[in-house]
Amino acid sequence: MIYITQLIYIKEGREEIFHQFEDVAIPLIAKYNGRLMLRIRPDDEAFIENSVEKPYEVHLVEFDAESDFEAFMRDEERKKFLHLKDQSIKAVMLIKGEKLG
Q: What's the pTM value of the predicted model, to 2 decimals?
């Protein structure tokens, strides 16, 4: 298993465009042996302490293997909508990990 955590930062006023991209991308995760475990849109009260900008959303996704994640990233249907991602996302911090214990 590989775990992908994304901190997603949106360009101001571009939330609806981002949602259009997510409406395409999120359902494709399952096609590549992946599962969306968490999709969080934190508000100010959710932060106890931080040294980075508050993200618009946090995603935690698991894939059976690194190759499944790579195949998802290369998906042709997803690529058709990358312009929506480019129009709406300011930055993404992607963290790869594995389950311990």
A: 0.90
Cα distance between residue 80 and residue 61, in whole Å: 21
Q: Map out the domains of the chain as residue ranges.
A: 2-44+53-97
In angstroms, what CA-CA distances link 25 with 48, 49, 50, 72, 93?
31, 31, 29, 9, 17
Digit-by-digit pLDDT tens for the chain (101 residues) are 999 999 999 999 999 999 999 999 999 999 999 999 999 999 999 999 999 999 999 999 999 999 999 999 999 999 999 999 999 999 999 999 998 88
What's the fold here for domain 2-44+53-97? Alpha-Beta Plaits (3.30.70)
